[in-house]
Amino acid sequence: MEMEGRGKVGDMPRLAAPAARGGKQRLWSLRDALATHDSAAEAEMHSRGPQVATGSIAASAVDLPKFDPEIPEGVSEAGFERLADGISSAPAAEMACLYFLGFNVPNATARVAGGLAKSLAVRGRTVLLVDGDLERGGLSRGVGQCEHRGLIEILNRSTLWRQTLYPTSQEGLTFLPVGRGALSRTGVDAARWDSLLQDFRSRFAHVVVSGGGWCADSIALGQACERTMPVIQLGVTWIAQVEQKVRMLCHAGVTTTSCVVID
Question: For residue range 102-116, what is the model confidence (pLDDT) as tens digits?
């Protein structure tokens, strides 16, 4: 999978000089974002053998009206294209299920996931876009499908997944909304979620899960996916938050690869 090289990232100028490290410090540069993610992941995964190479795309949020994302003027569309190209060229088993997890940017995370899902579908892949934001349902709200059955009902075993998939205006792209109500008090049933993704893998080339922001079920959702991609926004995301949460993910066996950096 080819993405922006570490050398190029390191050569990019800082957007603002950060204050002394530590405490409640926000990320202000692409270099800081990558370094924070990488150091946290390496700290937890040092003893787990060869690591997945990390990289980034510099991308801004895209709008997702009726599953037809439009990248705003002045934002790098090339970032999405490079990421989609890398995913498309990687072995299918390594990129079947992708989980996007935002750090203080749930709305942007939903738009990034939607934009990538469309880019993969445009390349002729069959893609299932899942609204896995169990607390906000950002994707479902954005397309007016908050009242439809979806992921919550499936996980609660009150409906079948085949009854909750909706076609979109983009050929090859299918949508699974977040659903209605709330999960059972025990949270995500990891075995149920893993079994569900197995069913989806048999039908779709890629499953793109929009995780919104961090919640109690983020680790369980990420564990069953091949890759988890943190979504970070410069000037918004806290360094300490990325360090802590990425270490928690890696410690739980979640594979984080790259991070999407919004400037």
Answer: 988 888 888 888 889
